[in-house]
TrEMBL record:
Protein name: Copper amine oxidase-like N-terminal domain-containing protein
Pfam families attached to this UniProt entry: Cu_amine_oxidN1, RCC1_2
Signal peptide: 1-27
Keywords of the record: Signal
Domain Copper amine oxidase-like N-terminal span(s) in chain numbering: 395-496
Organism field: Paenibacillus lycopersici
SUPFAM superfamilies (UniProt xref): Copper amine oxidase, domain N (SSF55383), RCC1/BLIP-II (SSF50985)
Domain of life: Bacteria
Length: 503
């Protein structure tokens, strides 16, 4: 243990980063491995690793390309090359951090997080807490955070972790956060429920680590020799913080990358998995150093691996994705329809993949729009990987639209959240007894008929593009209708920007 942390991209199960040769992953998505039942009372989350938010030089990407992905319990998070963070999926328990009052239970397309820019890496604990590392070394947090929720549905918009600077990597644990500093120092933090302030504590020692992931209340790291280390932190019921000081984790082969808390890649490209003792992962267990039980096992020895998610997916160095077990989206084996993949992320019920041009693919269960694809009819399953919906920045009169729900594109036609856009434009709307909607902008009025396919303007019936009108808590309207009312609209595909302005 020396006095310098080497900034490196972290490989873990649910958060990943696009780089020229490494993959970064995150907990349960990107921060911690949690086996506890979800707040909604669903089945226990699988062992998922949380990778640290830690930047590394990436190949050049367009501003609209994504470079890191994370998957949690029914939600997804992604970092774009321009330093903005986007999220979609379930928001029932405030997982997404898109708005304080939390009026919507899910977001069906990528929405940009407010007041957050300059982010170089992200991580999530899979249960709703996210952290981001900023280019200036500060750490930011958002979502469903233990100690900061007055009620179960409350969410925390992005905010800086005060008292923490000079960070080079950060992870979200189940009820705490952890960060490594440029001088080799290690910090952990929890939150004071009374004041909301972060309680940041220094862990004794300095560490030259090159990889960091988190699972439940524990985190793991690699040193330059490929030796695995563990440490932990937990917010106890009485408000105190328990810390497990760093220790060597035996029973794990020499690795070049931790791809999760129970998986890793050796220096020859071999993928390995192992089992950990439950303390530090299951709720109700005393927090203490976890141990490897049994022997580590080699997985798919015929493949050269870049990343692995135990019980989920394996990414090869050639950019192919392999399903490790039989499941609802198919049998074990190579996943069809994917190539040139640079990172993978796995939630309990859905999968994400990131390709070399920064495009995100989703598949699996889509109960809460977590795949990024409009939920299909029938069983709600997305059986084959598909590109997620377009991530759009919407501006109204030159200002970024303040809305927890994004603009969308259906069959080439853009739609926007009606209430937020009309408020920004200075317009208004009224829902009538026959379920039609009267929309007023300046001196113009349109009546949107209940089916959404037609509007009456000036006594004439006008056909409108087919767009999906309703999502949880949100009514959408076609941009073409606003244009008929005199609103100017322009779309820049290269920048992913929709600009609306008053006449």
């Amino acid at each position: 243990m020396r006095n310098r942390f080497k900034a490196v991209l972290i490989a873990a199960l649910a958060v990943t980063t696009l780089m020229s040769g490494a993959v970064s992953a995150g907990a349960g998505s990107a921060g911690s491995l949690s086996l506890a039942a979800s707040p909604a009372g669903t089945a226990p989350a699988p062992w998922t690793a949380s990778s640290a938010a830690s930047p590394k030089t990436a190949v050049p990407l367009s501003a609209t390309a994504f470079k890191q992905i994370a998957a949690g319990m029914y939600y997804s998070v992604a970092l774009r090359a321009d330093g903005t963070v986007w999220t979609w999926g379930r928001n029932l328990w405030g997982e997404l951090g898109v708005t304080t009052d939390n009026p919507i239970t899910s977001v069906a397309a990528p929405v940009r997080l407010p007041n957050l820019s300059g982010i170089t890496a992200i991580a999530t604990n899979g249960d709703g807490m996210q952290v981001g590392l900023k280019s200036d070394g500060t750490v930011w947090e958002w979502g469903s955070i233990t100690g900061l929720k007055a009620n179960i549905r409350e969410t925390v918009p992005p905010r800086q972790v005060e008292g923490l600077a000079g960070a080079t990597a950060a992870v979200a644990l189940k009820s705490a956060g952890a960060a490594l500093k440029a001088d080799g120092g290690l910090r952990v933090w929890t939150h004071d429920a009374a004041t909301g302030k972060a309680n940041v504590k220094q862990v004794s020692g300095t560490f030259e680590w090159t990889n960091l992931v988190a699972c439940g209340d524990m985190a793991f790291a690699l040193d330059a020799a490929g030796t695995a280390w563990g440490f932990g932190s937990r917010l106890e019921a009485d408000g105190s913080m328990t810390i497990v000081n760093p220790y060597r984790l035996t029973g794990v082969p020499v690795l070049k990358q931790l791809a999760g808390c129970t998986s890793g890649i050796d220096r020859s490209g071999g993928a390995w998995t192992w089992t950990l003792s439950p303390n530090g992962v299951y709720e109700g267990q005393d927090l203490a150093p976890v141990k490897v039980t049994g022997k580590a096992k080699r997985v798919h020895p015929e493949l050269k691996a870049k990343a692995i998610v135990p019980g989920g997916l394996l990414l090869t160095e050639s950019g192919d994705v392999w399903r490790l077990d039989n499941g609802p989206t198919g049998k074990a084996g190579k996943v069809k329809g994917l190539s040139n993949i640079v990172s993978i992320a796995v939630g309990p019920f859905h999968n994400l993949a990131l390709d070399a041009v920064g495009r995100v693919w989703g598949w699996g269960a889509d109960n809460w729009n977590e795949t990024g694809i409009v939920r299909p009819d029938g069983d709600g399953m997305v059986y084959a990987p598909k590109p997620i919906q377009t991530a759009m920045n919407a501006y109204v009169n030159g200002k970024l639209l303040d809305s927890p729900f994004p603009a969308r594109i259906d069959n080439g036609s853009a739609s926007v959240p009606m209430k937020a856009v009309l408020q920004a434009l200075g317009g208004s709307f009224t829902v009538n007894n026959d379920y039609s909607t009267t929309i007023t902008y300046k001196q113009s009025t349109a009546v949107l008929l209940p089916d959404g396919g037609f509007a009456e303007i000036g006594g004439k019936r006008v056909a409108l593009p087919a767009v999906k009108l309703g999502f949880s808590g949100v009514r959408m309207i076609p941009v073409s209708l606003l244009k008929l009312l005199g609103v100017h609209a322009a779309w820049d595909g290269k920048l992913g920007e929709l600009r609306l302005s008053g006449a």
